[in-house]
Amino acid sequence: MTVSAQQATPVTTLRIATRQSALALWQAEHVKARLEALYPDLTVELVKMVSRGDVLLDSPLAKIGGKGLFVKELEHALLEGRADIAVHSMKDVPMHFPEGLGLPVICEREDPRDAFVSNTYGSLDDLPHGAIVGTSSLRRQCQILARRPDLTINFLRGNVNTRLAKLDAGEYDAIILAAAGLIRLEFRDRIRHFLDTEVSLPAGGQGAVGIECRMADQAIIDLIKPLHHDETATCVLAERAMNRTLNGGCQVPIASFATLDGDTLHLRGLVGQPDASEILRTEQTVPASECEKAGIDAAEHLLAQGAGEILAALPHSVAANADTPDQQ
Ligand SMILES: NCc1[nH]cc(CCC(=O)O)c1CC(=O)O
Question: pTM to 2 decimals?
Fold first, then answer.
């Protein structure tokens, strides 16, 4: 279909490609509801897909494919015309898009912080000496050990519901999850404490949802554009520019988090050893219009301190797997 033909044809039905995890479905339903509220005559359908990452969830192979495994299937559906948009957690979106696809919309961010969840203890600082904390994010592990070197970090995988079930089964004294996922799935009451960003700097894009589509589909882009949130997008672009400059899929253990104060953007970045033996930090303050430059400068400052050596020393399977994409 040519661009002019699409502009002449109003969109009557929109298909959203989505994974079938509870969080992915919530995000797709949320976008569907917002679009239906904006356009009462529009029919929005969910195209539910099983991503390779979901199939391989319990296999070590899932580690090798990293983030890409969870979005590739959805991107195929877009490229083959089986769906019109795909809704993603920005944290899990790879740095580069296949030819013809792009991500023109980033929605308003939910709480970006990490959350402390426990059935016994009120916060990280309340945990007794040697307590067991569940997470498989090296970013979280590194920052938790920096604050509490006595804790034992144990591997914890699966989606949000699985993780809570493992906590409830008594396998851990506490677990750390993104607040956003818990809030969206109505588990806010399980959060005992929000980790201050000074204690646990979030992953780039955490808490934000983005919409990917075919960039030639101007009518679709126009349709979804009202869901774009400029302030969130400015912050997420800075965070992603830092991660991209630190080199592609290798994002572990990397944190990047930007905030806006009027027209001033403040970006903080971190690269650390998983055991917290070394933690590099950077802070950049720039006009909001230079958000990408802030990300590049942050990455270069981290690289100048030795971030490249830390990241290169990580085993490949770990380095390729970012902030534990299976958690969705
Ligand atoms: N890495 C997995 C992932 N991707 C997005 C979220 C939910 C929060 C968000 O939207 O960033 C999670 C779960 C988690 O980190 O606990």
Answer: 0.91
pLDDT tens figures, 30-79: 999 999 999 999 999 999 998 666 665 555 444 444 556 778 889 999 99
Domain final position from 140, 168, 194: 194
Q: Tell me, what amino acid is at 141? A: Q
CATH number at residue 306: 3.30.160.40
Q: Do residues 215 and 173 share a domain?
A: no
Q: Does a structural domain hold residue 233? A: no
Cα–ligand 1 centroid distance for 320 (angstroms) = 17
With a Cβ cut-off of 6 Å, ligand 1 is lined by 23, 89, 91-92, 177-178, 180-181, 206-207, 323-325, 327-328
Residues 187 and 308 both lie in one domain:
no
> Which two structure tokens, joined as six digits, stand for 29?
């339903």
> 324 CA to middle of ligand 1, Å?
8
Q: pLDDT band at 199, cuts 50/70/90?
A: very high
User: Which residue's alpha carbon is at the smallest distance from atom 12 of ligand 1?
Assistant: 328
Please name the residues in contact with 304: beta carbons below 8 A apart, sequence gap of 6 or more: none
Query: pLDDT tens digits, residue range 151-194?
Result: 999 999 888 999 999 999 999 999 999 999 999 999 999 999 99
**Average confidence score pLDDT of the chain:** 90
Query: Interface pTM (ipTM) of the complex?
Result: 0.95
Domain containing residue 180: 114-194
CA 22-27-31 angle, 5° bins: 145
Alpha-carbon gap, residue 91 to 19, rounded angstroms: 15
Q: Do residues 9 and 104 share a domain? A: yes
